[in-house]
Model the fold of this input.
Amino acid sequence: MDTIPDHLEHGLDIVFIGFNPSIRSSETGHHYANPTNRFWKILYQSGLTPRLYQTEEDSSLLELGYGLTNIVERPTKDASEITKEEYREGRILLKEKLETYRPRIACFVGKGVYQQFSGKKKVPWGWQEESTVPGIRDFTAPSSSGLVRMKVDEISAIYRTLLEGDRSV
Done:
């Protein structure tokens, strides 16, 4: 299966970081392409995007100051298929990406993504007290997967706090 391209550039406001691409994302070449994934709806409902974007427009988020990447590049049916070795390698690569591109905020799309990256066990939603990469503010948001039992409105409310944005690191 094909990996999908990151959408990153220097100085973004927010980089959204997922576990890894879905099979559907691998097939289409676009982030959050699974029809049951609510990422695009959450961004719109939270006020982070001015309209509802389609998965094929994922690179257009760069125009809004947002980027997209994953902790692991290999597509899988679900995150439980990711190996410890893939996470170990992914942590190194993700840290390098963050240090290179220097977004203001690293938004981890799912507590598990942040836990894998930071090594922390207990993680609250929202702003994290400590940054994993100096100078970049960490934010943990619920996964947008359709498997998550939280309602879209609840998830969107958490993402909405990203609009507060300029918190000190």
User: Anything to note?
Assistant: The chain is about 30% helix and 15% strand. The longest strand covers residues 14-18.
